[in-house]
Amino acid sequence: MEEDIGKKRHKHRRSQRPYVYILSILLVVIWVLVIWSFSTQSYQQQTIQPLLHKWAPQLNIGFALPDVQFTYGEHEYSLRQRPYDFAEFIFRKSAHLFIYAVLAGLVYGGLRYRKMRMWACIAAALTVVAIIASIDEYIQQFSPNRTSSIRDVGVDLLGGCGGIAIVMGLRTIRRAIRSSRYSPVKRK
To answer: Per the confidence metrics, is the pTM higher than 0.85?
Structure first.
């Protein structure tokens, strides 16, 4: 009887697979459209500096922290000299990491659901990230006050690697929980 239940579960899961795969493709397409819609926005539409200036008295940005300085592209960032530019830069690059982590996680998870080999899924997900990020940077050239940079594609690939690592970690945790749930407990 237990064997029949297992067969029914397996058959039920198999019948759901095409729908889940179609859903994963749909999620990837929607996420790419979200990314590209952000690309078409001007700098003024995306800036968080007005909010930073509004919250500045409560936050004391840059005054309690040591001065951190670096150059990215042609711009120099300094926490003490231009704290709002610094904070916005960190926010923007974190957004790049997050957006492309989600994209890579969706692609990787969808392909793994199709039972493809892990390395093929990683390569495919990172290829998709590189292509979409390159198109994203190309689109940004035509948005007012926006710049495109190959460095941002590198940041996006780092985000993609992080997204894949998170999905792999969650899958491993899920498998461990499932195996501990169904493993027989030895009693003395």
So the answer is: no
